[in-house]
Amino acid sequence: MSSNTFGKLLSVTTFGESHGPAIGCVVDGCPPGLALAPEEFRDDLERRATGRSRWTSQRREADDIEILSGVYQGRTTGTPIALLIRNTDQRSKDYGDLQGTFRPGHADYTYWQKYGIRDPRGGGRSSARETTMRVAAAVIAKKWLAERHGVRVRGHLAQIGDVVPRAFDWDAVERNPFFWPDAAMVEELEAYVNALRKSGDSVGARVTVVADGVPPGWGEPIYGKLDGELAAALMSINAVKGVEIGAGFAAVAQRGSEHRDEITPQGFLSNHAGGILGGISTGQAVVASIALKPTSSILVPGRSVNLAGEPVEVVTKGRHDPCVGIRATPIAEAMVALVLMDQALRHRAQCGDVGDVAPRVPGQAG
Ligand SMILES: Cc1cc2nc3c(=O)[nH]c(=O)nc-3n(C[C@H](O)[C@H](O)[C@H](O)COP(=O)(O)O)c2cc1C
């Protein structure tokens, strides 16, 4: 009922609030024998971390992970893996004057209506701080997927406001703080985001995640469809208002002759399906995109009401992030990786004896 756990054979439970003493997760169902050290979490946590650049909010956290259980002599034991990160930058005084108001675009109003009590410090449980633990849990999933199946899950920012990349290069993505695939546009983006920050306003963004190397067969009909579970997992990320698989909403304007991804012995001729048919992976790249809404906490004053229902004006005074989507790429990758590992384990459990079935066409022709 309280839905802090997801996944079937690989399940992840997160806990903690933005400004509590710590956040953490329990990853249950990871097969034994996977080498795992605290240092392996650093890269992805750093990629997600707030304060990684001046384009995102200034909150700084060390995000040092403690592995509390499930790992012995550097290897997973098959028992629950508990991970903990202590919050070291709590600064709840920043939020003192927001206790009695419902910030527009935030979960304040709905949490209040639902629970009748809320932790207002930094959004409490509804804060994107929680997504840190999804990224941490997915370090395990990414590693297992890569080692066991050669699957690589990576993402990039695909649009910010009305700006789209003019070129595409995976190598560029990790070399700029925007996860932007067009290196020649980074200065332009900096100017764009800088102007936004000065205006006190924000914009939305689109993030795309691609999982290469997924074999055919992962995903379960009918209620456990791979695309269905990806959509739910991605939609669970803060500020996500839309999910597309493959061509997504562009499919509306396509003809069947264009969309249907014809198959030849040399491979599929296109990938409008995003690597999934009937809820089951085709062996092509699994492709999912998300739409993130513009940051709600902005310097532009907005109208709301207080606990007494009286009108108030809300203005964010402290940190202001002109586009939360800039930081969402590692989180989206994490959710895709966790869903894929869960589905891989479920496929192995039910269909492990089926083995390789001929013929298997390559993912993409050419
Ligand atoms: C990485 C990330 C960071 C976020 N940081 C902020 C922020 O600094 N300010 C803000 O107003 N919203 C931020 N959000 C969005 C809010 O957490 C979210 O809009 C709010 O909890 C309401 O939930 P909903 O938009 O999913 O309905 C962030 C989202 C993500 C994914």
UniProtKB/TrEMBL annotation:
GO cellular component: cytosol
Binding residues for NADP(+): R48, R54
Coiled-coil blocks: none
Cofactor(s) essential for the protein: FMNH2
EC number(s) per entry: 4.2.3.5
Cofactor binding comment, as recorded: Reduced FMN (FMNH(2)).
EC category name: lyase
Any one biological process term the GO annotation gives: amino acid biosynthetic process
Keyword terms: Amino-acid biosynthesis, Aromatic amino acid biosynthesis, FAD, Flavoprotein, FMN, Lyase, NADP
Entry keyword annotation includes Transferase: no
Pathway involvement of the protein, from the record: Metabolic intermediate biosynthesis; chorismate biosynthesis; chorismate from D-erythrose 4-phosphate and phosphoenolpyruvate: step 7/7
InterPro entries: Chorismate_synth, Chorismate_synth_AroC_sf, Chorismate_synthase_CS
Catalytic activity line of the entry: 5-O-(1-carboxyvinyl)-3-phosphoshikimate = chorismate + phosphate
Positions contributing to FMN binding: R125, S126, S127, N238, A239, G278, K293, P294, T295, S296, S297, R319
GO molecular function: chorismate synthase activity; FMN binding
Pfam families in alphabetical order: Chorismate_synt (PF01264)
CDD domains listed in its UniProt record: Chorismate_synthase
Function (record text): This reaction introduces a second double bond into the aromatic ring system.
Family affiliation: Belongs to the chorismate synthase family.
The protein's assembly and partners: Homotetramer.
Matches recorded under NCBIfam families: aroC, PRK05382.1
PANTHER family: CHORISMATE SYNTHASE
HAMAP family given in the database record: Chorismate_synth
Official protein name in the record: Chorismate synthase
